[in-house]
Structure formats: C-alpha cells, structure tokens
Amino acid sequence: MRQVSYDDSASLYLIPTPIGNLDDITYRALKVLETVDVILCEDTRESMKLLKHFNINKKVMACHEYNEEKIKDNIVSLLREGKNLGLITDQGTPIISDPGYVIVKEVINSGFNVISLPGATAFVPALTISGIEPSPFIFYGFLNAKKSKQIEELKSLKDYKYTIIIYEAPHRLKSTLENMLDIFGDRQMALCRELSKIHEEVIRDNISNIIEIADSLKGEFVLIIEGNKEVVDYSNLSIDEHVKMYLDDGISEMEAIKKVAKERGVAKSIIYKEYHIGK
User: Fold this and answer.
1) pLDDT, tens digit, for every residue of 233-245?
2) Position 53 in a domain
3) Residue 210 lies in a domain
4) CATH code of the domain covering residue 68
5) Is 145 found in the same domain as 178?
6) How large is the C-alpha radius of gyration of the chain?
7) Intervals of the chain under pLDDT 50
8) Residue 245: domain span
9) Fewer CB atoms inside 10 A, N or C side of the chain?
10) What's the 3-state SS for the chain?
C-alpha cells in the first residue's frame, strides 16, 4: 500500500454548495470559502453568483470536466506554494456526479491533504422522502445518454435487490423511464424534482404512470427506484447446496456453476473451486 505524507501547510477543500435554497450552505463552508486563497469552480459565472450573495471576494479558477487534466499540475504547484484551495461545483458536493475526481487524485498522489466538508447533495434528501426502502441502496448517478449504452447499464442493475438512485435531465426523462419500464418492469418509484427549491415536488407511483406525465415535468430529477423484489435470496444455501439444486434440475455442472456465480455475484472460478473442494 502506498503511503503519502500530508503537507500541513496547504490543503484542497471540497466544499458542497446549495442545490437550490441558499440557506442550506453551512457555516463551515462559508468560513472555508472566506479563508482559502483560490476557489476552483465548475462554472465561474455560476459560482460568482453564490460568492457575491455571501460577500466573498476571492480569486477563482475554472475547473471542469474538460480542463481537469490540463490544470492538475498547476493546482499542485499552487499547493506547493502553500496556497489553500477550495473546490466547488455548480450545486451539491464536488465529485458526486460532478467534476473534481481527476484533481483530487492528483493532489492525493502529490502528498497533499484533501478535506471534504459535509453538506448539500441531492440524492440523500430524495432517498429519505421517497417512501422507498432506504437501505441498502445503490447510487448510480447519471446513466449514459446513448440509448444502447443506457440499456446495457440498466440491464446490469436489473437484478439488484437494493434501491437504485439515478439522476436525470428533463430532456431525457421520458426515454429513460421507458427504458426502465422495458428492463425493470413496472416497479414502484419516486420522482423527486427541484429539491429544496420553491417548486419542490415528489411523485410516488409506478414507472408506467410517471411516464404518462413525464413530458409535463421540468427541473432537475432524482429517481428512486425500488429494487428487484423477485430476486431469490440464496444466502441460506452453501455453494455445494446451491450447485446441486441446479444439477437436480438436469442441467450440466458447468451451467450450474455459471448460474450460481451470477446469482451470488462472484467469479465462476471461485464457485468451481469451492464446489469441488466440497466434493
């Protein structure tokens, strides 16, 4: 394991910003924004509105998904000069479906400290007001915009028993819900939009009914979808018992091992080894 020694003289702070209501910013976030030397912004124009609202006058630098690779060395150089940096995105917590990972990885590898402040993020309030079982859950973020790739992503999520959390943009909402209906079936879900804003709304229904009104909905969406309730829990079976269950159905040993591996979410080689040890 690689060890790094942090330089106490300079740090990169990940600072959550409100997802709508500006009152959701924390005292600590404001304090850090006021004390860092440079603020890295996903969109400097958007960030300046926030900083101006709170009377914060600091040097800002654009830091988004299209320039992270280009500026990461410059950011490390600023840290080496002893400058503390803050990283904010347009709304919510940096890196959570937002830019910042490339920078954070480079800063860590260069031996500097990264401090992440707790604060606003859209999926937590959406989950807690959804009425869908809150744990365990899978946070997926945005699906691929390309239909074929999105379908493959949804197929990979189909058999999870856990609640699934997905972000979606308004112009893709209906097509994404239609793909979900085709692959997941007509599950219960909650569509949360404009969280913390004046027009905050939660629609709790099955997927097919929400599709019918999707064209009329606007804003930023968090989709909370119930997990696959039809998945059988095989955790009470040993691997040997699980494989034999399929052998008794008349399928070959390798096909049985393949099915068990898929249902348990492990490699076929592991199932093969464990089964033959048991024999």
Assistant:
1) 777 788 888 888 8
2) yes
3) yes
4) 3.40.1010.10
5) yes
6) 23
7) 1-7
8) 239-278
9) N
10) CCCCCCEEEEEEEECCECCCCHHHCCHHHHHHHHHCCEEEECCHHHHHHHHHHCCCCCEEEECCCCCHHHHHHHHHHHHHCCCCEEEECCCECCCCCCCCHHHHHHHHHCCEEEEECCCCCCHHHHHHHCCCCCCCEEEEEECCCCHHHHHHHHHHHCCCCCEEEEEECHHHHHHHHHHHHHHHCCCEEEEEECCCCCCCEEEEEEHHHHHHHHHHCCCCEEEEECCCCCCCCCCCCCHHHHHHHHHCCCCCHHHHHHHHHHHHCCCHHHHHHHHHHHC
Q: Are 154 and 189 in the same domain?
A: yes
Would you say residue 254 lies in a domain?
A: yes
Q: Considering its fold, how many domains does the chain have in total?
A: 3
The 10s digit of each residue's pLDDT in 209-225 is: 999 999 999 999 999 99
User: How far apart are alpha carbons 216 and 222 in whole angstroms?
Assistant: 16
- 83 and 177 belong to one structural domain: no
Please say whether the beta carbons of 89 and 42 come within 8 A. yes
Same domain, 130 and 221: yes
Token pair listed for 225: 């979808």
Residues 53 and 152 in one domain: no
Strands 221-225 and 163-168: antiparallel
Here the tokens at position 234 are 């095989």
Type of residue at 149: K
